[in-house]
Amino acid sequence: MTLYPGVKRRMRPTLRLRLTLLNGILLVGAGVVLVLLAWLLVSESLHPVDELRAGSTVTLADGTTKEALVWQAEMVAQASRELLIKGFSALIAVGIIGVALAYLMAGRALRPLHYVTQTAQRLGEQTLDQRIRYSGGDDEVAELARTFDAMLDRLTAAFESQKRFVANASHELRTPLAVMRTEIDVTLSDDEADVAEYRRMAKVVRNASERANGLVDALLVLARSEAQSGRRLVRKMPADLSMSVHNALSAVKAEAERLKLDVTKDLSPAPVVGDPSLLDRLAGNLIENAIRYNHLLGRLWLRTESVDGRSLLIVGNTGYEVEPADVPGLFEPFQRGGWERTGSRGSGLGLSIVRAVCDAHGGTVSAVAQVGGGLEVTVSLPAADTTPVVAATASVPRVRT
Predict the structure, then answer these.
(1) Reported pTM
(2) Residue 381 burial (CB < 10 Å; 0-12/13-18/19+)?
(3) Neighbours of 139 (CB within 10 A)
(4) pLDDT digits (tens, 9 = 90+) for 374-395
(5) Cα–Cα separations (whole angstroms), residue 338 to 161, 187, 325, 327, 330
(6) C-alpha distance from residue 371 to each of 186, 210, 287, 375 (Å)
(7) What's the DSSP call for residue 260?
(8) Which of 178, 312, 314, 342 is the most buried (most CB within 10 A)?
(9) How far, in Å, are 159, 177, 195, 220 from residue 190 at the CA level?
């Protein structure tokens, strides 16, 4: 019997006991039916004097004589009595043995379930590496054990990813704060500091605060986008990816001119339904990355189009070489590519936000490393005239090397 916590005076039989009782009921019930069927057959078949003439008698082995009909009735009654006594005695013995074996077999079959429960009770931050690793037959219990192990693998990956995210976010936020505190302490400790020194310190503090503010904004956008994954968008309005590209280009025009980039545009209408502010951030992040990680006199190409019910946004750039195997990792938070893991060139959340926005709009995003350096990113979202996608999958295909 199992007493469930939080429920007063409520006892429920365990699954093992219920299976045993069910097996016992079926076994005893079948035995009773067989015994009664045998009793009926014996009662109907023992009529040896039915063909004799009325008033006939029979002589028994002890020399006594009885009327045939009386002898037949006594014989049927005795046979029926012995059949019932011996049949039910055998049924009781078989029932006890069957119930005991059923209890043992049910316990053996349910043993992995108890192990699943014990493993779940032991799970914690320090024990997520534990697994069931069931080695029995390939049955439903084995399938349950494998499913539980796979769930633990996903939980472990998610937990480790969350820990890395928190550690990276803390590091990224600590860096500008440390810069501001150091600059302030150094300047204040200098008794000979003049107005020019304080102005220099103020500029450094302002730049560091802008970097911290940009990181916080990026984290908020990422959290907002991930919260709306699976087409659970708060705002659903008609939008056009080509207009988002125009807006993003206007914001970075000065930086593109400073690097003297060759910008190629092929912007056809690409209507979608979604959150315009998130779509603007998606296009802005892609174009900002394409410029930030480009080089002097490099190239930047942009294309939007609508094909087969999908609206596409393609952003490509020249720049630093990226290993094909490193491309999927660029969509993880705080990843800046193999050539630069830390530094002041962005927070490392740009492509993570792009993937989250795509996921929120039921789209996909992929990237291809360019020969000679650079990256081409393709965003595919459901077109405005198609049925909204319910389950979103912003997948990043793995590149085999």
Answers:
(1) 0.58
(2) buried
(3) 11
(4) 999 999 999 988 745 444 445 5
(5) 19, 36, 10, 9, 9
(6) 47, 35, 19, 9
(7) T
(8) 312
(9) 46, 20, 12, 38
